[in-house]
Amino acid sequence: MEPISVALVEDDAGTRERLGHVIAAEPTLRLAHCAATGGALLEWFADNAVDVLLVDLGLPDRSGLDVIARCCRMQPACAVMVITMFGDESHMLRAFEAGARGYLLKDGTEADLATHVRSLHAGGSPMTPIIARQLLARWQADAAAGRAPSAAPPRVPPAGQEALSRRETEVLDLVARGFTYAEIAAQMGVSVATVQTHVRNIYGKLGVHNRSEAVFEARQVGLLP
Fold first, then answer.
1. Any residues with CB less than 8 A from the CB of 182 and at least 6 apart, and which?
2. Could you tell me if residue 153 is inside a domain?
3. Please, what's the b/e burial string for 114-144 (b: 16 or more CB within 10 A of its CB; e: otherwise)?
4. Are residues 62 and 171 located together in one domain of the fold?
């Protein structure tokens, strides 16, 4: 299986070096690029596809939120995860609205970074526990007040609800029926990496971030019975 390609934008040189070292030292990951500014990352990103992008929100030249939104538009299949010092609800919600699929605080991130990247690439939404609790508390407060959730599960707005390809539809059907990626790969005669690529494309087109959201959204728009 091909390693998961990862790009990173972080303005602090020490942090950038440490995170880059963790990624480069993990056999299942490949460090494709490190950038110190949002502008440098965007320039490189325009011509280079990666599986995962790690973004610091406190960049010196532009908002990390802007970087996330632009990168999600350029490469919908790329999974974006925030790594930041900002643990407040406002930054968290705005990052998810911009298209982030995971949100980690820098404290303690390095020890489990490789695991989080693999989880993100597989369709998960890794979050530091305190971030997950804030999100849950917001949902519960909205539910108690009878409001529609103002902090809905992270999702990337679909660009005109782009149609799924025939193969993506086939993968989606198998996902909805509960098959694992390995089982789907065996049935379709392709690699697990190819299935993962199809799944990421499905998530990007439907504007979702995990299996249950994909199945729900697909049923809502008539792609699944």
1. 192
2. no
3. bebbbbbbebbbbbbeebeebbeebeeeeee
4. no
Gap between the Cα atoms of 131 and 38, Å rounded: 24
* Alpha carbon distances (Å) from 80 to 51, 107, 159, 223: 9, 19, 17, 26
Task: Quote the pLDDT of residue 57.
Answer: 93
pTM score, whole prediction: 0.65
Long-range contacts formed by 212-221: CB under 8 A, 24+ apart: 213/153, 213/155, 214/172, 214/175, 214/176, 215/172, 215/175, 215/176, 218/172, 218/176, 221/161
Quick one: how many helices (H) and strands (E) in the chain?
Answer: 10, 5
Count how many domains the chain has.
2
> Which residues, 6+ apart, have CB-to-CB distance to 170 below 8 Å?
188
- Measured CA to CA, the distance from residue 200 to residue 51 in angstroms comes to 9
Q: What is the pLDDT of residues 104-122, one digit of tens each?
A: 988 766 778 999 999 888 8
Q: Give a yes or no: residue 134 inside a domain.
A: yes
* Domain of residue 190, CATH code: 1.10.10.10
In a domain, 184, yes or no: yes
**98 in a domain, yes or no?**
yes
